[in-house]
Amino acid sequence: METVETKIENGIGWIILNRPDKLNAINLKMLEELEEVTKNFEENNDVKIIIFTGNGKAFSAGADISQFKELNSISAWNFAKKGRRVMDYIESVSKPTIAMINGYALGGGLELALACDFRIAAEEASLGLPEINLGIYPGFGGTQRLVRAIGKAKAMELMMTGDRISAKEAERIGLVNKVVSLSSLKEETIKFAGKLMEKSPIALAILKHIILYGNDSPLLDGLNMESLGWGVAFSTEDEKEGVSAFLEKRKAVFKGK
Ligand SMILES: CC(C)(COP(=O)(O)OP(=O)(O)OC[C@H]1O[C@@H](n2cnc3c(N)ncnc32)[C@H](O)[C@@H]1OP(=O)(O)O)[C@@H](O)C(=O)NCCC(=O)NCCSC(=O)CCO
User: Name one GO biological process term (predicted).
Assistant: First the structure.
C-alpha cells in the first residue's frame, strides 16, 4: 500500500493513513486503498474491530487540494461520488469502527471520522469542515452525516463558517465520544475497543445496521427492523450463551455464532 498502513493486533484491525508530510490528505489512491483494506478487514475473521487513525500530527486534513486544479465539474462530481461511496462503504461495515483522532480532522478527514461508529480524540485535535474557505463545501457525505450527528444548527454553523473547533468543544456538542490526552489516546482507544470485543459480534452487527438504516427510514420501518432483527438474534448461539450466563451468574463468552 502506498498511502495507508495496516496491521492486526489482538483482534483490532488498524488502518493508518500514511501521508504524514501532507497531513494525510486524501487523494484518489488513498480512497482506493481505504476501500480495499477496509474490505479485507471486514472479511478477515481475526479482525473484530477496525480502528482508523493517522501517522504524524494529523488524522487527516481532508481531500488532497493539490489535485483540485485539474478538476472540472464532471471530474469533481466523480471524485466526490468516489469519496462518498468509500465513506458509505466504511459506514456500512458490519464490524464496529472507531476513528482515533490524533490531530487535525478536517474536511474529508472529518467526513471519514463521521463514517465511523465512534470518535475518540486527543485533546490537541482540531476538527472542522473548512471546505467553504475553498469556495466549495463538504463532498464526502459531511453535509448529511454532520447534521445527523450534531443537529442542524451547529452543523450549519460549522459548515458555513468553516471554523475549526477543539476536541473538547467537539465532545460538548456530541461530535466525538471521548477526549483523552495524546499520550493515552492509543491505550484509551484500545480499552474502548476491548469493551466492544466482549459483546456478541452478531448482535453488534444487527444493532449497528438497525441504528444506521432504521434511523434514516420512517419510524414504522425502523421499529419493524428492530423487532425483526431481535428475532434473528434469538437464532444465534451467542443469545443462548448470553441468557444462560446471566441465569448461571457467570460472565458470557460470545463466539460470534
Ligand atoms: C491543516 C492545516 C491548518 C495545517 O497547517 P500547518 O500546520 O501550517 O501545515 P501546512 O504547512 O499547511 O501543511 C503541511 C503540508 O501538508 C499539506 N496539506 C495540508 N492539508 C492539505 C490538503 N487538504 N491537501 C493537500 N495538501 C495538504 C500542505 O500543503 C503542506 O505541504 P507542503 O508540501 O509542505 O507545502 C492546513 O494545512 C490546512 O488548512 N489544510 C487544508 C485543510 C482543508 O481545507 N481541508 C479541506 C479540503 S477539501 C475536502 O476535504 C473535500 C471533501 O469534503
Answer: fatty acid beta-oxidation
Cell numbers 478527514 correspond to 109
At 57, is the secondary structure helix, strand, or coil?
coil
Give the CATH number of the domain where residue 218 resides: 1.10.12
Q: How far is the centre of ligand 1, averaged over its atoms, from the C-alpha of 50 (Å)? A: 26
Terminal alpha carbon distance of the chain: 33
| Residue to mutate (ligand 1; options 3, 23, 132; most atoms within 8 A of CB) | 23
Question: Quick one: what percent of the chain has pLDDT higher than 90?
Answer: 100
In this structure, the residue with its CA closest to atom 2 of ligand 1 is 61
pLDDT tens for residues 100-154?
999 999 999 999 999 999 999 999 999 999 999 999 999 999 999 999 999 999 9
Cross-strand pairs, 26: 63
CATH code for the domain in which residue 136 is found: 3.90.226.10
Nearest to 107 by CA among 70, 79, 72, 78: 79
Catalytic one among 91, 111, 171, 239? 111
Band of the pLDDT at 52, cuts 50, 70, 90?
very high
Q: Is the CB–ligand 1 distance for residue 127 below 6 Å?
A: no
Q: Is 63 in the pocket of ligand 1 (CB under 6 A)?
A: yes
Using CA atoms, how far apart are residues 85 and 174, in angstroms rounded to an integer?
25
* Domain coverage including residue 94: 4-197
Structural domains in the chain (count): 2
66 lines ligand 1 (CB under 6 A): yes
Please give the sequence-ordered ranges of beta strands (E in DSSP) within the chain, or none if there are none. Answer: 4-9, 12-17, 49-54, 58-60, 97-101, 104-106, 118-122, 126-128, 164-166, 178-180
The model's pTM: 0.97
